[in-house]
Amino acid sequence: MQQATTNGTQFETPAEINVETLVRDDKIHASLYTDPHIFEQELEKIFYRVWVFVGHDSEVPEPGDYVTRQIGRQPVLMVRDKAGAVSVFLNRCAHRGTLVCPAESGNARAFTCPYHGWTYDLSGQLTGVPFPGAYGPDFNKGDHHLPQVARCDSYRGFVFASLSPEGPSLEEHLGIASRLIDRACDLSPEGELDLSAGWVKHRYMSNWKMIPENDTDGYHLGFVHRSVLRSAGSQYQLFIGEESGNKGLLRDWGNGHTEIEFSSGYQQPFEWFGGAPDKYAAYLAQLEHSCGKTEADRRVFEGPPHALIFPNLFLAEMNIALFYPLDAEESIQWHTPMFLKGVPELNTRLLRQSEAAMGPASFLLPEDITIASRNQAGLHARQPEWLDLSRGRNREYVDEAGRVVSHFTDEVTNRAFWKHYRTLMAQA
Ligand code: FES
Ligand SMILES: [Fe+2]
User: Fold this and answer.
1) Which CATH class for the 170-426 domain?
2) Does domain 55-162 have CATH number 2.102.10.10?
3) pTM of the predicted model over 0.90
């Protein structure tokens, strides 16, 4: 069994190391965050196989609308075709490999490669080649289309792609965690989200795994976010201080999907939106009209999910975030406010709240990525080799839905992330 060791000067991690041996039930090896060989294996075994969140239906509402994204290092193009279907292509010209679409988003009738002008229609077919006479009779445009990802599927507007033709379906991958996406969508009186506000991007110096781990880590809240908790009122104040009571829970939803459940600590409807239910009477009336009073009351009490959909989608309450790995020690996170269809006045407030809470001059996300970068920097010290993940193992339990649950400050969600990671990395 190969295993990373330290000789005092560097970790020895051969390219063929069995990464799964570095993840134990209650600890992980520090090289998982720093080793470039491990990072390359993660691209192959995670990002190029599993279902990765690419974008949302609402970002490409009209035929010809497109956005460009990445799956691991591979550039992709999500586009709505003339018939209204959304497809995901590799963003690579079939001629010599140039990015066919260098823009981040827009609307196009066709995609013309900027290098030699090969042109593709919205379904990826090659329709035009400049000066075609120089190609012989065997040249067939049908052989030179934009490559599609192996599989593309969506759930309630969230578009996912897998670069592997095999493996679990999206439905199987999401499992019961699809309920977390439902919880977000069902806050809209129309049952749909709108992620068209644009994305703010944060580039930072840490391994990609630190952010999904942090997203559903309750333990750090009162420390990393102390400044925002001191300077602005928010629902999070309910969850810090003495570790007592049953305020907030962590849940492992399976397949690496994890959650902080805040609503068990809420005291009134709309706690997740600053309280003051009377401010939202018009929204509540619309929601009641769509689903009935009892259900509407439940939804506005419970609020949005705070959950990770493995590996790269964060349902960040009234924001949506995604992240990309760049290399072993650098990543990028995007976020956008989660608008609810049918309530534009609420969305205006959401936009302001998102700017104040998540943007580069704000608190929450900058604080999280700052601590992630410091975490990464600390790992350059090579002792101790193993990081502890044992917090709360003695008090976690399985609930009636089969989810492992524990106290808000425990590490059940981190263990859930790593357990799934180990399963994926152990595959041939
Ligand atoms: S690389 Fe695209 S046309 Fe030549
Ligand atoms: Fe945080």
Assistant:
1) alpha beta
2) yes
3) yes
